[in-house]
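Known limitations

Files may contain more than one protein. Parsers should not assume a single record per file. Below, a two-record file is shown to illustrate correct handling: read the sequence, read the token line, then continue until end of file.
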Amino acid sequence: MKAIETKLKGCFILEPNVFKDSRGYFFESFNQNKFNALIGQEVNFVQDNESFSSKGVLRGLHFQTGDYAQAKLVRAVKGTVLDVVVDMRKESPTFSKHFSIELSEDNKRQLFVPRGFAHGFIVLSETAIFSYKCDNFYNKPSEKGLRYDDPSLAIDWRLPTKEFIVSEKDLVLPTLSNIEL
């Protein structure tokens, strides 16, 4: 597996070694020791989540704060998504900057999202199964989020706005200028 640090410090693209033959393929999607060595820190995942969504479903931008902040390792098991992260670490030189990457069943890439980042994705294929490992348990009172269409972020979600399917919860999230951190 290869790790490539993004323009946002601590956020890594992980590219597995995929072994293909006439039977199909095989790859190691996660190995705790190799993962920690690649990203240069110890992360212990305690919760796995999976979602199924249709084309245009936009989930995010979500994060948890305080003692319940979460780092995540995300990937598309089936289909294709545009995955987006926003650096919410006030002390970071890349605070409020975002990064996006296409994750798919074909490229098998994963994205490591450190604590202190908002995270979201939109489904680009007809359907997608999205998986994420978290290094901390979900805690509703610690959950926060940002509007996906915050003009100060100017995220290109790659689909026309009229195709977006967004939850009521995500439609009322604050913009970066109105969020309390």
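...continuing to the second record:
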Amino acid sequence: MDGCVFCKMVAGEIPVTKVYEDEAVLAFLDIGPISDGHTLVIPKQHCTMLHECEAGILSAVAARLGKIAGAVAAAMGAEGYNVLVNNGSAAGQVVNHLHLHIIPRKAGDRVLTGWPSYKYKKGQIEEIAARIRASL
């Protein structure tokens, strides 16, 4: 897609520090990492958000994600890792090309801590589930 920075990376127009590449997927180190080894995994074919991608694109990414995540964790000596996808600007998506973050973690690193949570009000959980089911 014209103007997409990740598409330009796929095309070789913008340099990138690759950790994995094949016919469908490119994985590279994030230039603004949350932790050492923070890796982005993208489909080579452009799509913007997870729910807008064709099933074949998603399956290609998913088929490779575990291998890449395991390699990142092993190389960094991580005790765990997060896999995150930001969809839309309200969720923090800056580049409008689907990308999955692999973020290596160690106990006590305080990366991505403090996610707020709450309890649903009585009856609210059933109402929300019904709305989601109706949208499927």
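Parsers that stop after the first record will miss the second one. For reference, the second record is described as follows. The longest strand covers residues 80-85.
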